C-alpha cells in the first residue's frame, strides 16, 4: 500500500493493488500545474481511496486534474473514459519502491532542461 497527501493534509490518499505506467510527464499542462516535470503513476480508481474533497479542474474536454482546494497541490489526473487514474509520486509518504520507467510528452519538453537518462521517451 502507498499513502500520500497534499502539503496541508486536507487531502490524503492510499493506493492498493497494481501500480503501472510510472512516468515523468513533460506536457505543457503538467509543467504549468506542477512547476516542472510531473512524476506520476497509474492505478485503477477503485484502488485509490481519497480522504477529503479535491477540486477537479477540467483541463481538456476529456480529462480533469485533481488538486487540494486549500494548499493547491496537484495530486491527480483522470481521463473521462478510463477506469484508472494517475497520482503524483511527489505526494507519496516514505519510501515507495517505485522507479520512473519512461518519459511522456517529450515533444512538449521545456527548453531549460535536458533528459539525461536512458529511459524510453515518447513524443505523446
Task: Report the structural category.
Answer: mainly beta
Q: Tell me how many strands there are.
A: 10
Helix percentage: under 10%
Poorly predicted regions are none
Q: What's the gyration radius in Å? A: 14 Å
Biggest sheet overview: 7 strands, mixed
Tell me what portion of residues adopts beta-strand conformation.
Answer: 35-45%
Quick overview of this protein structure:
The protein is mainly beta. It has one helix and ten strands; from the N terminus they run E-E-E-H-E-E-E-E-E-E-E. It has one domain: Beta Complex (Metal Binding Protein, Guanine Nucleotide Exchange Factor, Chain A), CATH 2.170.150.
Describe, in plain words, how this protein is organized in 3D.
With 124 residues, the chain is mainly β. It has a single domain, classed as Metal Binding Protein, Guanine Nucleotide Exchange Factor, Chain A, CATH 2.170.150. Helix content is 6%, strand content 39%. It is built from 1 helix and 10 strands; from the N terminus they run βββαβββββββ. The strands form 2 sheets. Strands 6-7-8-9-4-3-10 form a 7-stranded mixed β-sheet. Strands 1-2-5 form a 3-stranded antiparallel β-sheet, with no helix packed on it. Strand 8 (74-79) and strand 9 (84-88) form a beta hairpin. The radius of gyration is 14 Å and the shape is globular. The mean pLDDT is 97. Keywords: Lyase, Metal-binding, Zinc. It holds the Pfam family GFA. Belongs to the Gfa family. GO terms for molecular function: carbon-sulfur lyase activity; metal ion binding.
